[in-house]
Every structure is written in C-alpha cells, then in structure tokens.
Amino acid sequence: MDIVSLIAAKANYWTYVILLMVGLYAMVAKNNLVKKIVGMVIFQTAVILFYVSIGYKKGGTLPIIMHGHDHGHGVESVIKAADYINPLPHVLMLTAIVVGVATLGVALALAIKVYQEYGTLEEDEIRKQIELKG
Amino acid sequence: MILPIDLIVLLLVIISAFAAITVKDLLSASLMLGAYSFLLCLLWTVMGAVDVAFTEATVGAGVSTVFCVAAIFHTTRRTKD
C-alpha cells in the first residue's frame, strides 16, 4: 500500500488535524486580535469536521427514510439502519455551529471595545500602552 | 484518472484556511474566512450532512462574514501579520 492511498483513505482525518494545527498556530502566534479570532473559528470548524467524519458511511445515503409514504398500498418496506449515514453527530454539530457564531460575535465585540480603549488591534502595542500606564 | 470531489474540496479547504491567516489585510482575511465557510458547506453536502450544510451556509458563511466586516468597519484594516 503506497503512501498516497494511505493518506487518501483517511483524508478527512488528515484535514482535521491540519486545520486544528492551523487554528492553534493562529491563536497562539499571531499578533493581531482579529487574526486570533479567525484562528478560533478555524479551530471550531475543524472539530465539526471531525464529528461529521465520524458519522459518515461509504455508500450510505442521506438520513431520510426511503419509501416513507407507501403505507397505504400494503407494501411494507424494511428499513435497514446500515444503509443510512448516522445523523446523531449532525444534530450535535448544528448546535455547535450556532454556538460558534455566538462566540465569534462576543469576541469581535470585545475586540471593538479594545480598539476604542487603546486605538490599536496589535497585541504588542496594547501591552506597551498598559506598561506605560501602570 | 478521475479525482474524487471530496479530495478536491478538502484540498481547497486547507488552502483557504492558510490564506485566511496569512494575508496582510483584515478585510481580505474575513472574506477568505467566508470562502472557507462556503467550501466547508460544499464538504458537508458531499459527506451527506445536508442539515449541517445549510446551517453552515446561512449562519457560518453569511452571518459570521457580516459580523467580521462590521467589526473591521468599526476598527481598522491595518495589520502587521
């Protein structure tokens, strides 16, 4: 098994790890506050990608019951749960997306208040002004 | 050789994430973040999570981009990194 097919078989999880590292790097090493917030959004969506990848099945269809309307014709079709993608991680991640946007809004509001107080968004200049004041 | 669409979308997601944290302009960074959210919406559709896909398209790519642009309108576009 060569290395390309080894990576392509788990491409979702490799992408998850790369996005997690990109977001963590931006949160720790970037100097601008908005860049840190962008890193936080990338980190959150990486975790959402991990959860959706857990529920994915190769060859599975959408989690909507097929033949749901033929009860009146006397033909009862059997529902096989193995044919459907697992919808439980999707439902959890719907909440996570909305919470992520709320967190983004609060973080940007705090960044606006910091800008009104110090006149800059750069972390080192803010730290310099705090040292001059105190 | 036919490339599968999910690998192409995953590659574009990684490229746009790197672009969002490396551009030297905050307005460009927030628009690249909107493009990143929209590519993630395509990825959820490919992976069969359609409810997550349209929540991401409205809330992630729509509202969060508007929030970022409004915050940059109230502060500044200038950045050092």
Short characterization:
By secondary structure, chain A is mainly α. Chain A is built from five helices and no strands.
Structure description:
The complex is a heterodimer of chains A (134) and B (81). Chain A is elongated, with a radius of gyration of 23 Å. Chain A has five helices and no strands. Chain A is mainly α and 134 residues long. Helices cover 68% and strands 0% of the residues of chain A. The longest helix of chain A is centred in the C-terminal third of the chain and has 31 residues, at 88-118. Chain A has one domain (3-60, 84-133): Orthogonal Bundle (Helix Hairpins), CATH 1.10.287. Chain B is built from three helices and no strands. The radius of gyration of chain B is 14 Å and the shape is flat. In chain B, helix 1 (5-22) runs antiparallel to helix 2 and helix 2 (26-46) runs antiparallel to helix 3. Chain A binds chain B through residues 8, 11-12, 15, 18-19, 22-23, 25-26, 30-32, 34-35, 38-39, 41-42, 45, 48-49, 52-53, 55-56, 60-63, 85, 90-91, 93-94, 97-98, 100-101, 104-105, 108-109, 111-112, 115, 120-122, and chain B through 6-7, 10, 13-14, 17-18, 20-21, 26, 29-30, 33, 36-37, 40, 43-44, 47-52, 55-56, 59-60, 63-64, 67-68, 70-72, 74-76, 79-81.
Describe the sheet with the most strands of chain A: none
Rounded Rg of chain B:
14 Å
Mean pLDDT of chain A, to the nearest integer, reads: 88
Per the CATH scheme, the topology name of chain A is: Helix Hairpins
Secondary structure category of chain B: mainly alpha
Shape of chain A: elongated
User: Which pair of chains has the greatest number of interface residues, and how are they split between the two chains?
Assistant: A-B, 49 and 41 residues
CATH architecture identity of chain A: Orthogonal Bundle
Q: What is the approximate shape of chain B? A: flat
Secondary-structure content class of chain A: mainly alpha
Q: DSSP strand (E) fraction of chain A? A: under 5%
Extract low-pLDDT stretches of chain A: none
- The number of E-state strands of chain B comes to 0
Radius of gyration of chain A: 23 Å
State the distance separating the first and last CA atoms of chain B.
40 Å
Helicity level of chain A:
55-70%
Approximate helicity band of chain B: over 70%
